[in-house]
Inverse folding.
């Protein structure tokens, strides 16, 4: 089956930052994304668990989006500028998709 | 002194505080007790709705008074000044970096809405019923401290604004519109519109189960605070712990003359002192993660949630009640 090369951008960040990440993606022309709630984890500030948190601070979410090869670099630069001072990580991976026209 | 002791004893043996102590103690000895996040959020929205509605109904009976305007003014002044005092104390007596000191100052200038709810209940229990409009005072005290603390943090860090300028866009709007404040103030307005007939219609939901639900919520909050204390203990030192225990009383002392000047009754004055003494751990941390990402949550959350909140809930509230009674008369 024919597949098409794309870039998958994954951002794990604190919930208060998530709306800003999505806004940056939207303004950069990204048409779709999916946000996942994380259940627990450990980072530089120690362990956390969603059931043990009050408020949104410290609660991590994962935002996944698929980008075309030519737009990936520019969007990654904008995302980096946003999350650089924040508690967040971004990874980019090579993926293949079945439908070329929707990304 | 006797009065403080009696109030403290009555407060300490009240079911909400005992459940809080159970949760806190359980977490300290390693219990994994916790409510699911969705449940805790629902309980907190219920408490905001109930306390806001009751305040609104009381306002409908009392009407808008000069004391209401003066109390709002006093709240704004306190929320703006307390961070400055907290910041100066931290800079003089702790070794916290400027950005951490400013972040901690924001928490102590802002308010803990859970402490407000617990204090309202506790004060009613000892016959010091606060005026309904104190709900609006609580809401107005949440934001000024954040603005002042950001100015304090930027003193030597002009680049903080540049670096996080985009992220800060819309931040204050988010703080003003956080779910606690929207439900609290929304229910306050609904209570004021519907008045006593409205209260008669919903009292079975809003008044009767209130204390029981507060117990359940504080059991969970105790566990969260206890775990926060355990996990964050490594970043604290004796000076910071002393700060977290003393700063609430400094805030309450700052509020005392304002409560007197505003002509508040003893219950409302006690609530103003409690608000001035309380430290945020929900709205402010979320805002500061965006505005001051360099500040360490383990420091400001452990101090406000792990040290100050339990102290206020157990010993603070009765002391503020006694201070307010002394200052404005019972």
């Amino acid at each position: 089956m024919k597949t098409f090369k794309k870039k998958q951008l994954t951002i794990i960040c604190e919930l208060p930052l998530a709306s800003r990440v999505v806004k940056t993606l939207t303004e950069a022309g990204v048409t779709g994304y999916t946000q996942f709630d994380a259940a627990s984890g450990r980072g530089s500030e120690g362990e956390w668990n969603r059931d043990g948190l009050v408020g949104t601070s410290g609660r991590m979410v994962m935002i996944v989006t698929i980008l075309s090869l030519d737009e990936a670099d520019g969007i990654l630069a904008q995302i980096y500028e946003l999350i650089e001072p924040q508690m967040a990580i971004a990874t980019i991976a090579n993926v293949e998709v079945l439908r070329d026209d929707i990304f | 002194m006797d009065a403080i002791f009696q109030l403290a004893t009555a407060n300490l043996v009240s079911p909400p505080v005992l459940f809080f102590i159970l949760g806190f103690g359980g977490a300290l000895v390693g219990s994994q007790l916790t409510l699911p996040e969705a449940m805790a959020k629902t309980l907190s929205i219920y408490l905001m709705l109930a306390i806001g509605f009751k305040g609104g109904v009381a306002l409908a009976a009392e009407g808008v008074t000069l004391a209401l305007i003066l109390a709002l003014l006093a709240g704004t002044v306190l929320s703006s000044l307390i961070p400055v005092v907290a910041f100066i104390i931290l800079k003089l007596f702790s070794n916290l970096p400027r950005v951490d000191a400013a972040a901690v100052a924001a928490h102590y200038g802002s308010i803990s809405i859970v402490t407000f709810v617990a204090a309202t209940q506790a004060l009613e229990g000892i016959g010091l019923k606060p005026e309904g409009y104190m709900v609006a005072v609580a809401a107005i005290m949440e934001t000024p401290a954040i603005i002042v603390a950001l100015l304090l943090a930027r003193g030597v860090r002009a680049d903080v604004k540049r670096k996080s300028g985009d992220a800060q866009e819309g931040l204050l709007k988010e703080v003003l519109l956080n779910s606690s404040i929207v439900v609290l103030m929304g229910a306050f307005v609904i209570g004021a519109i519907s008045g006593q007939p409205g209260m008669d219609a919903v009292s079975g939901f809003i008044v009767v189960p209130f204390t029981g639900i507060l117990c359940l919520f504080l059991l969970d909050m105790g566990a969260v605070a206890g775990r926060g204390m355990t996990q964050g203990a490594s970043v604290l030192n004796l000076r910071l712990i002393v700060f977290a225990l003393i700063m609430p009383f400094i805030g309450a002392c700052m509020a005392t003359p304002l409560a007197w000047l505003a002509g508040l009754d003893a219950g409302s004055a006690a609530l103003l002192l409690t608000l001035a003494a309380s430290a945020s751990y929900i709205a402010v941390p979320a805002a500061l993660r965006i505005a001051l990402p360099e500040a360490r949550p383990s420091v400001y959350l452990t101090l406000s949630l792990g040290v100050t909140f339990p102290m206020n809930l157990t010993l603070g509230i009765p002391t503020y009640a006694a201070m307010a009674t002394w200052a404005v008369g019972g």
Notes: The interface with chain B takes residues 14-17, 20, 45-47, 49-58, 81-82, 84-87 of chain A (CB under 8 Å). The two ends of chain A are 18 Å apart (CA to CA). Helices of chain A lie at 15-27, 69-83. Chain A has two helices and six strands.
